[in-house]
Amino acid sequence: MRKKISQSIRAKTFLGLLALLVVCCAAIYGMVMIFLPRNYYIDLKGQITADFDALVESLKETGWEDGQDRLHAFAAKNHALVNVINRDGKNVFSVNYGDKGALDTEQHPNGDRVNIASTVPTEGFASGFYYKGETYYILATAALM
Description:
The protein is an alpha+beta fold. A hairpin with a 4-residue loop joins strand 1 and strand 2. The radius of gyration is 26 Å and the shape is rod-shaped. The strands form two sheets. The chain has a four-stranded antiparallel sheet with strand order 2-1-6-5, covered by helices on one side. The protein contains three helices and six strands.
């Protein structure tokens, strides 16, 4: 068999191109696995930051009572936990679209139950705003998924 391959130009060309194709595919796969997740998280973080800034600006104009629709929309879109706290530290509004309840655990190979939520990267945001003479703070934790 080796004698046939060493004497045949077609077999040598085929094997050479096959080896080159395998090396190129492995290099492309490696680059995608290295660069794509990092860029995805950077873009997602930028989108969430822009959404949070727009939310804070709208709350400055309308207040958190009239902006509850926007708070719910932000939390749902970004899989976030959002809290609005008054100057005294009392939580006046809270919404959590980041909690999936019982779906947050999975079976680990060693038999233990593992909390998936602890493995999802998150980003925290905080800002303050004034509305009708009152100071409020908005805290958000969004899942980067």
